[in-house]
Input
Amino acid sequence: MTVHQKNLNIEELVAKDTAHHLHPFTDHKSLHAEGGARMITHADGAWIWDGNGNKLFDAMAGLWCVNIGYGRKELAEAAYRQMLDLPYYNTFFKTSTVPATELAAKVSSLMPDRFKQIFFVNSGSEANDTIVRLVRHYWALKGKPYRKVFISRRRGYHGSTMISASLGGMEAMHGQGGLPLPDIAHVMEPDWFQLGGDMGREDFGLHAARDLENKILKVGPENVAAFIGEPIQGAGGVIIPPKTYWPEVQRVCRKYGILIVADEVICGFGRTGNWWGFETLNIEPDIVPMAKGLSSGYLPIGAVAVSDTIMSDFVEHGGEFFHGYTYSGHPAACAVALENIRIMQDEALVDHVRQLSPYLNEALGALSDHPIVGEVRTQGFLGAIELVRDKQTRERFAELGRVGGLCRDHCISNGLIMRACWDTMVFSPPFCIGRSEIDEWAVRARKALDATYDDVRSEVV
Ligand SMILES: *Cc1c(COP(=O)(O)O)cnc(C)c1O
Output
């Protein structure tokens, strides 16, 4: 690893950052009170370093995105070469570039046959914005302009733009900026651990799917454009649905002619042990937004895969679809994504995830004997640890999110990045890890849990 930034004055940088950098998803009062952000300076494989010289195991792969791991020169070189050949050209108005063409074909080749057409964007949020416009336009072309309503789940995450935050089911986000926008409805999330009560897992899966059918009937099936869901909800707390859930959701959607959008922004590109989360969860979607893993986060790029049935209407009816971004199909981002996929394929990283996931499940699963752990669940390289005050009843600690925050801080003190979604610790490690790194991670996680337990011992049942 070569570190190009040497002799940094971290204190000065943090002060500058606090003074000028307006951070996303941040409580600005506490950022100022706590003396600013943690400055991350470099990274290699699954490890990141901060400005104080601390080395941390990044069990989140950045924000669920650095799937191949940090420090891959090949991706930097792909960007460098492409920027010299052609740093930018647009893909509007019947022009194209070589990397955009090659990447569209490559992504299509990784998907079921019906996904031949790929639309490029710069993020997951833009992918979902694109989908809302595209699907509503599709229904208008079919003479059903009243089919406008999107149904999604509570605690779903689909991005942070006005429409994608509306599609998402995060109450706190809806509370800011007048969301959700009209014609978006939310239904129950298939979270057995939190909502299942006395129901068995599989019964609860059907129960959650029934909430979708009830909502469809309430809205009027003829008004519903599409159902959107992450195969496994990520930012909502890695909610791995009961096996009964998705097949029933799919049956209900088909019954009423409602399109299915599988948001693969986290699950896509191998995260669950297959190329796509919809393969793991047995879903046959009509539209697939993707982003994070497409370039392993090395450059911003996302995409929307559109099935033949939808595309044939666009081709048949003609008329311009007035939608696109200056950087749709950005040549350097496409070149990096192509190189990322080449590495994924040449190094069989999806097989690696699938083969190593039982080991990860066992190593992290062993934490379920801990006094404040209610459940550990994993699917591929995606998972969650539930923190509870009562293991038997799955009762949470008072003030949801407080103990999760404590645990996250103890993780960091122990050289480990895991994220807290309220009181659910979540993880999504890079694919480049092996058994020894998983072992090291589990040791650090237990230390963090022990320290958290020390803080809240008096509350535990
Ligand atoms: C991160 C995420 C998004 C939004 O992607 P951005 O690139 O942050 O806009 C959308 N959907 C899911 C499932 C995500 O996890």
